[in-house]
Amino acid sequence: xxxxxxxxxxxxxxxxxxxQAILEGLSKDGGLxxxxxxxxxxxxxxxxSGMTYQQIAYEVMKLFFTDFSEEELKLCIxxxxxxxxxxxxxxxxxxxxxxxxxxxxxxxxxxxxxxALSILPHLMITSARKNGITNEIVILTATxxxxxxxxxxxxxxxxxxxxxxxxxxxxxxxxxxxQMVTQxxxxxxxxxxxxxxxxxxxxxxxxxxxxxxxxxxxQAGFQFSSANSINIGRLVPQVAYYVYxxxxxxxRGEIRSGDPINVVVPTGNFGNxxxxxxxxxxxxxxxxxxxxxxxxxxxxxxxxxxxxxxxREFILTSSPSMDILISSNLERLIYLATxxxxxxxxKLMEDLRTTGRYxxxxxxxxAFADFCGYYTDEEGTAEMIRDLYRETGYIIDxxxxxxxxxxxxxxxxxxxxxxxxxxxxxxxxxxxxxxxxAIDPKYASEEDFALIDQLHEISGVxxxxxxxxxxxAEIRHKDVCEKEEMVDVIKAFxxxxxxx
Length: 500
Ligand SMILES: *Cc1c(COP(=O)(O)O)cnc(C)c1O
Prior knowledge:
CATH class of the domain at 93-109 and 233-470: Alpha Beta
Mean pLDDT: 95
Largest sheet: 6 strands, mixed
CATH architecture of the domain at 93-109 and 233-470: 3-Layer(aba) Sandwich
Number of strands: 16
Helix content: 40-55%
Radius of gyration: 21 Å
Bound molecules: pyridoxal-5'-phosphate
């Protein structure tokens, strides 16, 4: 197998192994790790169509994580995709209306982040062992709601790790917040910040780039890593479910080998849709990558104009995990667009940092030919939830609804009837209030858990364990801080325990 190394989008002289890229999370120069090339699948789709989710995950990951042994990788996969998921299929594909919904929310925290965060801790511990790391690994995470809980669940009580999660105090759903602040595990810390997700993410990135702090922590036996979707150890496992969805359609006789499909992805930080792009590069016959945004439509504007501009009002919507103005993973695609020119990419990212915008030169926009961007407002999101429920009885969460509404627009506008997979990124139980109010305004005045019971009644879908768990759980994390205090919070958390 061809060895894949990883380089930074801001420094092409740097080359590290997969395990090192996973451990570091973000490159020291502020860039993101990208594979030296995107490998091609060495199994045919017909072969893959007879495989389980775990087997396909292995076929994808072995090509990217080439310094892991077969045994190491298979063990990570086995431990990740097990009975934490409430279905053997791991990612069921269901046809409703004129699209297939790829349900990525059957893991421990009922959002698609579980697909990657149930395996990341195992990849990280394996990477630490391979590289002779003795420091304790401190996972720092900024969350728009779903990453936080999925990372906490993944790293809870994992030997040799601690995890600190920062979330925007007023920017997550009540259920998302309750899931996080009730987290158990002595190695976990959850803190609200006065600010939005971009503030949290920028704060975390600055901490990663603080060399003095790094040295200080190293002295004390700690080192930082990231569980955000900038970590290549999160991105690659996500590629697997796009390959899996194609293989599943083929196995069911819905398509013939080689037929193209489209995918629609509700997008925030651009991780999930980038994984679909990688799946395409690997040889999965995907035609269009349809990027769905909510009212924070930076990406929609970017795809239309080539201008990325975050200088705009930050809007809180019913799809909070997509309330993002700086889509970090886009940098990986920009880097490709520049012809893998780190200096050029660095310049654009510097523009973004200093002026809040950059312009991708016309001649570089070809890299985006497979993508198209659409967006939906709050009304369209609610309408989609209501319409699909009335037509099919199927209830989707607001993030998935943004994607479904975008697909409706795309189909009307283009007449393209290529079989289409919509990434269904959260269980409706995670956003019960928005979902139930969309179905009927009469639900708006009810209490959260009463709504959950009503959602169960009208959908017939069992209430997930993740929801039952928080009904009466004790609040364990009450801290709130200013952006400027994030470092102090981390230091205090690391201090209050003995070094092992
Ligand atoms: C994180 C998240 C998204 C956005 O995914 P990105 O990889 O950040 O683009 C969409 N929907 C839900 C429910 C999420 O949790």
